[in-house]
Known about the structure:
Oligomer: single chain
Amino acid sequence: IPGIKFSKCSQTxxxxxxxxxxxxxxxxNPLPTxxxxxxxxxxxxxxxGEECDCGPVQECTNPCCDAHRCVLKPGFTCVEGECxxxxxxxxxxALCRLAKNECDFPxxxxxxxxxxxxxxxxxxxxxxxxxxxxxxxxxxxxxDGQCSELFxxxxxxxxxxxxxxxxxxxxxxxxxKRGNTFVPCEExxxxxxxxxxxxxxxxLPLGEDKTFNFKKQKQNVTIKCKAMFLYNNSRxxxxxxSGTKCGEGMVCSNGECVKIxxxxxxxxxxxxxxxxxxxxxxxxxxxxxxxIIAGWGETLNLTSVSIMAVVxxxxxxxVGLVVLxxxxxxxxxxxxxxxxxxxxxxxxxxxxxxxxHHTRSESVLTDIHPLQRSTLAMTTExxxxxxxxxxxxxxKRENCSQKEHKVAT
Length: 409
């Protein structure tokens, strides 16, 4: 008889697997582009050109969507989502997702989308659980916490002697696996191989636990070291989780105990938030205590515009100063030409002759309009005639004086 559904046992094991392993590839929602389906109004899927789709008209119960046309009803801005309330998008800053733990951030609505923004976590490597661990992808992994997941809440991390098993390099203790070869742990990496717990009970149906006993002769104490082994060759969940603290400022990464700086990169956010600036797990920035900067992009754009305006004004001022300097130099040159030494000689020299003046006038007339040049030439000629008349008059006067002097004698 072919099976038509999963048995109760299989369903329980599957649910337990999802709870413990949290496989991202199964729990996340696939992109709509992965599905090839005919688009039409009423298929309960918002296709291109649709604002909403609540299914067939007779089945639609959404008060925000017009089931006949798959568009929002007049006056409404959204249909569903964490940031959609009474068919209206919530205001910017409204809380839409609480912080799950100290390694998670609360999310707030953007004011323009009905969906809550992508989940943001505290920066990887941020101290958590009073210094017992460091944040990693929104969780605070510790050895005690992993033991509780593997062997119920009563389990906890076992004695450090148990981790000596990880030097063996076999399925009972190792740090890495290359093909079918188990790579033993180095001394510094012992807490990053198989995890060993004590107490609790087996809670996973996917494998079996094995307990190793170490006896301390002097104290007459038996140490129990319990480890988890899977039935198949899938990923060994009995290895210490990545991001688990293995020393001060050290975390497990790929079976090695390395410094946080090597395991994670960091980004400084102090310049982007007024107070309580912290990095998130994607090397973005978050501002704690609700101090998320409103209009971050707008603020940056305004700042850029202001800077450009200041630079433009400074450039204009600089160009103006250069123009003034050039004009000033031209004025200086013109004055120097007007006050040349040749002209000054004509004023001061007692032997300054009209002929020299006449010569200089001719050189100056080259830059004057022809009509003005002729007028000036006529004026100069009249002046020369007047000089000649004056000389003739003086000569006659002198002759007359001489004659009168002779007559008198």
